[in-house]
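[recover] target loaded
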């Protein structure tokens, strides 16, 4: 786990003036990574780092001689079309690059003239999925979400007995993962209407979002060699926002006995920026279990994880309908919660995923699972907020919502703040539902 160092100093200011604005997501203390290119161009995607409202081209900065040693090597490999090679390098190289970037972008350093030419305004950029993702695993780490959902399906037995022992997950689909701005047609599929004896076929009627974080794997492990929990974070490059769009009616009919399939694999949206664990170091919190819950088995327990395994990451969901967009109405905030309420930590997910010998590779992605907080207004999906579609939400234009309608845009936001520490943000994860494509 990362210690605080000079890169976290709240007093640091950048020569990129917009990075000093109190409300920016991307001050000098953040330095998240993405792949990007000039909007509308056919340039290859390349790695960049966010600073204020600008993006620094890492390869161009390295070519300009801004970095030395390990940081220069890291900046060069980060200049490729995906960040996999940077993710593979591991924490020492990531830290060296972060320190070098922090110094090169700092007010008063003579790098301004050289590096100004390597900046592109974010307003002129478009983004790619930041890694070539080999495998995607979606977990289920919010006990509040698991209980709320379980109550709808099994009122007498909401939380299954394995939940508090095993971090529940399933293998997801990579091909339909997109980056913020993704738009996709409402999925078609089989559903079983209430009381019906046989399914019908048509557009999904209960389309939902899931508020999650995405966790990108760093170096990973050789098959057959599990990652011990105390070393798990050395294998995590960073964190982004993730929307795991879900077709609830398709899910309810198809999910037994093997779990979700077509109800989940039509689209998953990521925010473009990956915030590193080192940037998140000031916002870590103790991980604890209620005394009357089972304590984690030894392979899922470590003193380092008990001390700082949780992360106080503020999360919001906003919804804007097509009608609201046309009327110029701002998106409505549906939820505000924190990742610190998760039942399982990032380290526990890594340790559990590899304990059977399964190998993780650089650029693999975990979804945290829907992050619902302890109260219903902190729920991370419409199925919880509307109690399974029974209690509609009134939108600012007077329309009602139980599930998503065509033209709806869902926006996830995330940030970390704490007294005495510079606030850092994650930017946005935005996606829009289009009309179904009928056969
Ligand atoms: Ca999910």
């Amino acid at each position: 786990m990362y210690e605080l160092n000079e890169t976290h100093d709240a007093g640091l200011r950048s020569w990129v003036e917009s990075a000093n604005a109190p409300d920016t997501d991307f001050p000098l203390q953040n330095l998240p990574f993405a792949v990007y290119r000039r909007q509308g161009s056919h340039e290859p995607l390349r790695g960049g780092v966010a600073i204020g409202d600008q993006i620094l081209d890492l390869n161009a900065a390295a070519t300009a001689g801004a970095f030395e040693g390990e940081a220069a090597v890291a900046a060069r490999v980060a200049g490729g079309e995906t960040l996999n090679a940077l993710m593979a390098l591991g924490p020492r190289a990531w830290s060296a690059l972060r320190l070098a970037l922090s110094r090169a972008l700092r007010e008063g350093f003579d790098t301004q003239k050289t590096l100004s030419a390597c900046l592109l305004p974010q307003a002129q950029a478009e983004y790619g999925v930041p890694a070539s993702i080999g495998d995607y695993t979606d977990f289920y780490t919010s006990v509040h979400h698991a209980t709320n959902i379980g109550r709808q399906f099994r009122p007498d037995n909401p939380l299954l007995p394995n939940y508090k022992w095993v971090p529940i997950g399933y293998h997801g689909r990579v091909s339909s993962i997109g980056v913020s701005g993704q738009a996709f047609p409402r999925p078609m599929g089989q559903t079983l209407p209430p009381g019906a004896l046989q399914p019908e076929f048509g557009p999904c009627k209960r389309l939902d979002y899931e508020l999650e974080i995405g966790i990108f794997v760093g170096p990973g492990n050789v098959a057959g060699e599990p990652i011990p929990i105390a070393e798990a974070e050395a294998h995590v490059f960073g964190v982004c926002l993730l929307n795991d769009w879900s077709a609830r009616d398709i899910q309810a009919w198809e999910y037994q006995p093997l779990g979700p399939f077509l109800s989940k694999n039509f689209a998953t949206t990521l925010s473009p920026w990956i915030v590193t664990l080192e940037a998140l170091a000031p916002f870590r919190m103790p991980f604890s279990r209620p005394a009357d819950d089972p304590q984690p088995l030894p392979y899922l327990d470590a003193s380092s994880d008990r001390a700082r395994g949780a992360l106080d990451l503020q999360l919001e969901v906003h919804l804007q309908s097509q009608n609201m967009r046309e009327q110029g109405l701002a998106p409505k905030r549906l939820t505000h919660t924190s990742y610190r309420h998760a039942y399982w930590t990032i380290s526990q997910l890594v340790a559990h995923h590899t304990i059977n010998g399964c190998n993780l590779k650089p650029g693999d992605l975990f979804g945290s699972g829907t992050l619902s907080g302890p109260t219903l207004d902190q729920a991370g999906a419409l199925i919880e907020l509307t109690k399974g579609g029974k209690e509609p939400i009134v939108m600012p234009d007077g329309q009602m919502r139980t599930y998503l309608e065509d033209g709806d845009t869902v926006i996830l936001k995330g940030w970390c703040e704490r007294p005495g520490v510079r606030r850092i943000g994650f930017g946005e994860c935005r996606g829009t539902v289009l009309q179904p494509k009928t056969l």
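[recover] notes: Residues 138, 210, 212, 244, 367, 369-370 surround calcium ion (CB under 6 Å).
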